[in-house]
Structures are given as structure tokens and as C-alpha cells.
Hints:
Blueprint: H1 6-18, E1 26-27, E2 31-32, E3 71-73, H2 76-85, H3 89-92, H4 95-99, H5 117-129, H6 134-148, H7 157-164, E4 186-197, H8 203-208, E5 216-224, E6 230-237, H9 246-252, E7 257-261, H10 269-278, E8 283-285, H11 304-315, H12 317-324, H13 330-342, E9 346-347, H14 352-372, E10 377-379
Parallel strand pairs: 4-7, 4-9, 7-8
Antiparallel strand pairs: 1-2, 3-10, 4-5, 5-6
Amino acid sequence: MVEEEPQQVQIRSAEMAAQGEVGAQPSVVHGLGGGAKAQGDVGDHFPKLRMPILPFKLNQDRRHHIPRQQGKVTNWPAYDASLRQRGSLTIWFTDEAIAAWAAEARTTRGGQSRYSPVAILTALTLRAVFRLAYRQAEGLIGSIVSLLGLSLRVPDHTTLSRRAATLNVRRLRSESVNAGADSEPMHLLVDSTSLKLCGKGEWLLEKHGTATRRSWRALHLGVDARTGRIVAATLTSKDVDDASQAGPLLDKAAGPVASFTGDGGYDQDRVYDSVTQRHPDAAVVVPPRATAVPSDTAETEPTQRDGHLQHIAEHGRMAWQNASGYNKRARVEATMNRWKQVIGDELRAHTDERRATEVAVAVHALNRMLELGRPSYVRVA
């Protein structure tokens, strides 16, 4: 390729400008212009009005902004101490676990287990909280037993992996909350998130540019709005929608339910039916879709959804959120954030049974952290 001299290049640029070929000049937004002929167009080299890269910021000064609420923690000394206790080994390696470390004698045919379910749960909890592999969890338990001067046998990594497939994690209940029929009805908040399955990792995509199709599982949680505890959890494939898990979450939530709150993904008839069948007096707080219409019996026998639509039509969606208590759903989103920060955003088990146990152990660990202490907020602005 023969390079042109600088003088010839200048002459050619002048000829192009005289002929009106400004479309070939580079622009700030689109690089080479797309044939703009008038000065000030996007394709012009020197536009009078340049389109910003983010068009929605054109009306930034006139957009409606909701001021962010500000709160103050009133019990900071106690809450700060509870945060430190979460990293203490003595919190997770309790005296109850030490006393019930050995398995009870078996009365039926078969091999005798050496470790009780409490011992396996303690080991798996330490593994989940500190994000350890099975071998590292075995080493951590061995060091704790040695430092405490106990004469306990340490389960090896193969035992932990094998027992994780059949472990029945016991759901702990707070002493101040009774799970029986006489307990106070809970306000159930539901939401879902995705957890990645363990695999080759993100480095393979960076190094080679290609990777296998990513796989993940959907985690559905039910949280008590008053206590913040996780009272129900299910793990499904990525193809299962949120509304189909309303019934299983209600079945796992022990005690009466006063309200069922979820996002727009739960705006389906089967969700209302599931709540009505199990708890007839419970309120369903789910925002209707933008294209929702009243039912055929809205004039004679209005449903809860018809009431939501009428309130939104008369007062607006923001007023409906404040009146119905929908804003409490932010607490289940905070629980999802705690899960990702403490436990992680992936599942390390390779079978469905072990993944279910991994989720149950994580629920047990997060609820145990809440029992150590919770912050008390007071709104200041």
C-alpha cells in the first residue's frame, strides 16, 4: 500500500469538505458518521449539539427522586459484640454438640455409625461458614478438638461427604417464638435468587474465551418479617418459576400465616389458591401487573387482587405499597444479600441430595447468627 504525502492528504481533505462529504468524518458518539449532511447532525465532525452517551440523563434535573431513608442503630455495642461472636469457633462448636458427639447405639440390623447427626451438622456448619473444602473442614475440627483437650474422634472427609447426602438438618426454633398453633401469626416474605453450580470457574472463560453453558439452581426463601429468620427454603432447577413454590414454602413454614408477600412474579391465580387453601384468613400482598384487569366477579364478589387493583387505580401504586405493607419485602432481599455475603453465591455439592443438605445447613447457620444479636434501627431522616 502506497502512503500519500501529507500535502496530498490535505488537498484531498479540502476537496471532500468542499463537496459536502462530512459523513466520513469521525464523531464522538458513533465514530465514522453515517452520512450526515447538515452541520450539527450526529455524524458531523463538529456538531452544535452532541447527544450524550446516556440519553436518560437528559432530564436528570427534572426527574423525581425519592430521598433515601437514614437510620441509626440504637443497640450498637450489643450488635457489635454479636458480629464478633460470629467468627468465634466456640459459637459453632457448642457444648451440646460435644455431649452428643457419638452416635447412639443402633437397635436394628446394619452397621453402627460413629458420629451423631449433631456432630455431622457441626462439621458441615463450620465448612459452610468458613467456606472450606471437606479436607480443610476435617483439619479444622481436628485442631479444635486438640486445642480443647477433648477425646473425640474426628470425622474424615469421606464420612462428611457420605453423611451429607442423608443428613436431616434439624430446624432450630428461637426460644421466644413458639412454632405451635398458639404462636403469633407470621408475615411471610418470599423471594428467589440463583446459585451457581461448582464448575471450571470464571478463569476458563478469561483464558480461553469459551466455556460450557453455565448452570445454576434457583433458591426460594421464606422469611419471617418480624424476626428475620428463614422459616422455609426450597431448591429447584432454573426452569421452575417462583409462583410454583408458593405451596411448598407455605408447607415448610410452621405455624399460622397472617400474610404472604412477594414480588410481581407471584401474581398468579395458583398463588392465591395455595394461600387460601392453607390459611384462609391470610392476606396476599402481591403487586398486580401493569396490564392486569379486574375479575368477572369484581362487582359482586371482589377478590383480594380486585381490591389491590381498585386501590392502585384510586390512590396510585406508591400509596398501595405503603397501605398494604409491601415495602416489608425489602427484608427478604436483605436476607438474600446476607446469604451471598456470608455463604456465597454458589453450590459446591455435586448431587441434588447434597445440595439440599448444603442449603439446609446454610439456613441453620444464618438463623444461628441472628440469635446472637440483631440491630435495632430508628429512622432519623
